[in-house]
């Protein structure tokens, strides 16, 4: 998703902004730009491509001055072009803005402004903010008033930073993240603490419906009516400063490799919240669980585990679907929202709908300062550290780690969540990647992969398919084993690969039969199992563990397979095309 950044201080703004944007690259983007305030006017450079490439070509970091704004764009309105990249100047060039979010009524605002003589160069919704601010400023010649008037006209959700010709920065937050960093020698505005963590760990998290004005006198924060607002300065957790690849070739591989620790530590700092959540779940009449992408797959695992081990029924809902089926939520129920970022717009919308129905919100979230955490009655922190790779890996298993801890409490210890065993087993899968690398070479030219799993292994099949799609761009589909003969069997031939998730548990025999049916049609079989079989063309061995715990182990080889397939195909596993780490637009 778009990242916005602003800097007002003693240092040279442009290199600080470029460095901050680089640290937020993980959010996903297609173009980049920076504008600074020089002695006389606003200087601006922008273009399509990666931060490093555009910087090498245009020297963004050479722009003069100590005040500036920067942006990485993830296109929503208008093609990926240099002109559509941010910052966007107003038609007089006296104000420039960067924006994250969507302005829903930009069409009518644009028509109105054009009729008043304001020119537009881009196809974006964002440019309307620059010209609306300019229009309001031209009327009242007061930055605070022009901000208030502008926000009163904007519909949608947004965070933006505006730089005025006199050097003042003004920024507003409405349902998109915006954080103020307070450094010794300057102030920062950013979508993410990673934008300024190298310079300061003092931050103010703006609330929805607030705006901030920054100049040499200091910071002033207001609500959208213009009333002054006071905020505490928060210390940002130092762990965010660890967001480096270290010796790993990619963040994705680093994050996959951290799992022997992150799974077992998941939720450790939220023991009280896990107890409270368990209590709520035990006594609730209706329980819903929601998430997007990988987090939804974790929600599905919860459904299977709680049903099987604790006889508790929970209804998983894909977050983006709830807007269209709000009647799903019965009053006075519980909604458990799972999200790594805590900023996925679809998840936040689902929470809003559930709150309307008087549901209590419990969340499992990695970023404890996120909007989701703020909206929740009970917050369980995943505690797996920053996840930079766009495709979720360690956050998925941390979510499962917490779900397992809740399961054990719900069923009064009926499953044995043995941390040492889990950690050792994950470590064992990671310790020899030779075979997985060989299989990845074979997958390079494969068009279609199907992944089969029964019961709780079905959500793992779905998550496996998602990983393969995101990282290797191979078409992949997760199938519940029994559904094979109700359609997918028609697709099986020698060009197809099928991954069979087949641990030695109650699903083993049936899944092996499915594998034989597929093999008879000529497809190649990759078996993920602790038990060998002649039906597998490739056997990826996983350690034997308590039946209930297999999902935690069996996803690891598929994460690795997806990663190495991306390497074989020479695509960037950390930043897959067209995807964003936290999707803050609906
Ligand atoms: C995006 C990411 C996925 C992620 C999903 C949910 O689509 O590309 O990797 O699973 O968002 O993100 P969340 O932060 O809510 O878990």
TrEMBL record:
Catalytic activity: D-fructose 6-phosphate + L-glutamine = D-glucosamine 6-phosphate + L-glutamate
Enzyme Commission no: 2.6.1.16
Domain Glutamine amidotransferase type-2: 2-217
Keyword flag Transcription: no
Transmembrane portions of the chain: none
GO terms for biological process, alphabetical: amino sugar biosynthetic process; fructose 6-phosphate metabolic process; protein N-linked glycosylation; UDP-N-acetylglucosamine metabolic process
Superkingdom as given in the UniProt entry: Archaea
One Pfam entry name: GATase_6
Molecular functions (GO terms): carbohydrate derivative binding; glutamine-fructose-6-phosphate transaminase (isomerizing) activity
Chain ranges of the SIS domain: 277-416, 439-576
Keyword line: Aminotransferase, Glutamine amidotransferase, Repeat, Transferase
Catalytic EC class: transferase
Function of the molecule: Catalyzes the first step in hexosamine metabolism, converting fructose-6P into glucosamine-6P using glutamine as a nitrogen source.
Protein name (record): Glutamine--fructose-6-phosphate aminotransferase [isomerizing]
């Amino acid at each position: 998703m778009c990242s916005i950044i602003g800097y007002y201080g003693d240092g040279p703004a442009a290199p600080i902004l470029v460095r901050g944007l680089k640290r937020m690259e993980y959010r996903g983007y297609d173009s980049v730009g920076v504008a600074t305030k020089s002695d006389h006017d606003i200087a601006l450079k922008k273009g399509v491509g990666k931060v490093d490439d555009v910087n090498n070509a245009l020297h963004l970091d050479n722009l003069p001055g100590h005040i500036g704004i920067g942006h990485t764009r993830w296109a929503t309105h208008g093609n990926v072009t240099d002109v559509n990249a941010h910052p966007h100047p107003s038609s007089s060039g006296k104000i420039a803005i960067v924006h994250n979010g969507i302005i829903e009524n930009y069409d009518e605002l644009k028509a109105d402004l054009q009729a008043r003589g304001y020119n537009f160069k881009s196809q974006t919704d964002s440019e309307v903010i620059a010209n609306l601010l300019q229009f309001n400023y031209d009327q009242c010649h007061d930055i605070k008033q022009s901000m208030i008037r502008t926000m009163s006209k904007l519909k949608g959700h947004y965070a933006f930073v505006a730089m005025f010709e006199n050097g003042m920065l003004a920024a507003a937050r409405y349902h998109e993240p915006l954080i103020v960093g307070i450094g010794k020698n300057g102030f920062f505005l950013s979508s993410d603490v990673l934008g300024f963590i190298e310079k300061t760990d003092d931050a103010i998290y703006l609330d929805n419906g607030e705006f901030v004005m920054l100049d040499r006198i200091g910071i002033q924060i207001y609500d959208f009516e213009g009333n002054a607002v006071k905020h505490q300065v928060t210390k940002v957790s130092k762990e965010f400063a660890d967001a480096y690849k270290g010796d790993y070739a990619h963040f994705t591989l680093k994050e996959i490799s951290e799992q022997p620790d992150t799974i077992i530590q998941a939720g450790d700092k939220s023991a009280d919240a896990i107890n409270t959540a368990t209590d709520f779940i035990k006594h609730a009449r209706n329980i819903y669980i929601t998430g997007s992408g990988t987090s939804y797959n974790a929600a599905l695992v919860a459904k299977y585990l709680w049903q099987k081990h604790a006889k508790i029924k929970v209804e998983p809902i894909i977050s983006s679907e709830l807007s269209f089926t709000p009647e799903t939520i019965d009053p006075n129920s519980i909604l458990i929202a799972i999200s790594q970022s805590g900023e996925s717009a679809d998840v936040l919308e689902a929470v809003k709908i559930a709150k309307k129905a008087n549901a209590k919100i419990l969340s499992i979230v990695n970023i404890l300062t996120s909007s989701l955490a703020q909206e929740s009655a009970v917050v369980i922190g995943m505690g797996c550290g920053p996840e930079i790779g766009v495709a979720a890996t360690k956050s998925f298993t941390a979510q499962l780690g917490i779900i397992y801890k809740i399961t054990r409490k719900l069923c009064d210890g009926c499953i044995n969540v043995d941390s040492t065993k889990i950690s050792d087993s994950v470590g064992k899968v990671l310790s020899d990647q030779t075979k997985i690398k060989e299989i990845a070479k074979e997958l390079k030219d494969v068009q279609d992969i199907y992944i089969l799993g029964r019961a709780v292994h079905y959500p793992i099949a779905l998550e496996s398919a998602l990983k393969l799609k995101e990282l290797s761009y191979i078409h992949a589909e997760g199938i519940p084993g029994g559904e094979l003969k109700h359609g997918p069997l028609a697709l099986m031939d020698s060009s197809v690969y099928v991954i069979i998730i087949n641990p030695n548990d109650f699903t083993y025999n049936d899944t092996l039969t499915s594998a034989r049916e597929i093999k008879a049609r000529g497809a190649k079989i990759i078996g993920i199992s602790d038990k060998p079989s002649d039906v597998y063309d490739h056997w990826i061995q996983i350690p034997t563990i308590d039946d209930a715990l297999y999902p935690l182990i069996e996803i690891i080889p598929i994460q690795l397979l997806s990663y190495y397939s991306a390497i074989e195909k020479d695509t960037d596993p950390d930043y897959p095309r067209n995807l964003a780490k936290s999707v803050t637009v609906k």
